[in-house]
Structures are given as structure tokens and as C-alpha cells.
Amino acid sequence: MNFNAANKLTVPLLFENVQKLHTKTLYEQHMWQVNYEEFIAAEMKRQQECMHEKESNFVSKKLTENPVELECRSRSPNSSSTEDASTKSEERNLKADPEQALLREQRAASCRKSRINNKLKKATLQYRNEFKAQQLQEAERALNEIRKKLKFAKQIFLVKGHTGAELANLHKLYGVEDFNCQTK
Fold first, then answer.
1. Other beta carbons less than 10 A from residue 127's beta carbon
2. Which residues form a coiled coil (predicted)?
3. How many secondary structure helices (H) and strands (E) does the chain include?
4. Higher pLDDT among residues 55 and 183, named by residue
5. What is the rounded CA–CA span in Å between residue 54 and residue 173?
6. How many degrees, rounded to 5, is the angle at CA 116 between CA 48 and CA 60?
7. What is the rounded distance in angstroms from the CA atom of residue 144 to the CA atom of residue 151?
8. Using CA atoms, how far apart are residues 61 and 69, in angstroms rounded to an integer?
9. Which residue has the higher pLDDT, 162 or 83?
């Protein structure tokens, strides 16, 4: 019996060329790109909704902690007697013309409502800006930490004997051509 003939594989290997395993058809590449873009869009939408919810919670919490004062306008104590006389004459005219009195009341109510809404909008905007400033500070701290870690990794990479050209190749490979690793 010939052992050489028995030891030979008579069935060809399924994957003789490993390179074929790594290639995708154009359709597969296109579908992967479409799925990837859909995933990114869905994740961005989810992140935006989450951030909007956090912002709304922050603003409502601040508004409950620091309620907006909605006092009515009152006459100043320094009002002159001529103003008092003019208001008395206006009151006499109001009794004579009820339509004008109704219009004045409606205008006064509208002005009060507008003043209240403006105060609430101003307070809401102030707290929203405070929230955004906090988020920006957190993002800046995280970015500085990433910069420190990248700078440290770059130093280790160079200490291990790799060249600057290899580092530049890595930058190019990952699409980070001119990343500044300096911390503030």
C-alpha cells in the first residue's frame, strides 16, 4: 500500500484562495453602505430625542426650583396728582362708552398674557442655555481626555521604534490626517 497516495487529499479545498473570502460584490457593498447609513441616521435621531428629553427635564426642574415671579404691574408711588385726575376723567368716559371699556379690558388682558409669556420664555431660554453650556463643558473635558490618551499612545508608538511615516500612514488609514493631539 502506498502511503503517499492515501495521505493526499483527493477533495479540493473549499477555500483555496483566502482573498475571495474578503471580497464583497458591489451589491453587498452597496447594501452594507445603505444599512450603515440607516443605522447612523436612526442612532442620531435617538441621540437627539434623548438630548431633547434631558434638556426639557433640566429646564422644568430649574423652573420648579426657581419659579418666575409673575407680579402684576402697579402704579408707582411717585405718580403725580395730574395722572390721578386724568384717570378719573377716563373712568367717567368708560361709564359713558361700554364698548371702549371692553376693548381696554381685552387689551390689558392681552398685554398681561404677553408679559407673562415673555418672562417664561426668557427664563426657559436662560435655563436651556445653561444646560447647553454644561453639555459643552462635559464634551470639552471628554475631548481633552481623548487628546491626552492619543498623545500618550502616539508617544508609546514612537518609543516602540515605529517611524513617523508609519504613524502618518495610520492617520491616513483611519481618516485622521491632521489630528492635533495637544491639550489645553
1. 19
2. 129-156
3. 6, 0
4. 55
5. 36
6. 35
7. 10
8. 16
9. 162
**How far, CA to CA in Å, does 93 sit from each of 74, 84, 100?**
22, 14, 9
pLDDT-based confidence at 11, cuts 50/70/90? very low
- Residues 31 and 38: their CA atoms lie apart, in Å, by 10
Cβ atoms < 10 Å from Cβ of 126: 13
Residue with cell 479545498: 13
Residue with cell 491632521: 178
Residue 69 carries which side chain, given as an amino acid letter? E
Residue 184 has pLDDT above 50, yes or no: no
Q: Which residue has cell 428629553?
A: 53
Rounded Cα gap, residues 172 and 169, in angstroms: 5
Look up cell 371699556; give the residue: 101
111 exposure class (CB count in 10 Å sphere: 0-12, 13-18, 19+): exposed
Interatomic CA distance for residues 168 and 76, integer angstroms: 72
* Cell numbers placing 179: 489630528
Whole-model pTM? 0.57
Question: The cell 443605522 sits on which residue?
Answer: 39
What distance in Å separates the CA atoms of residue 27 and residue 140, rounded to the nearest whole number? 40
Q: Report the chain's C-alpha Rg in angstroms.
A: 36
CA distance 144 to 157: 20
| Alpha carbon 12 to its chain's center | 57
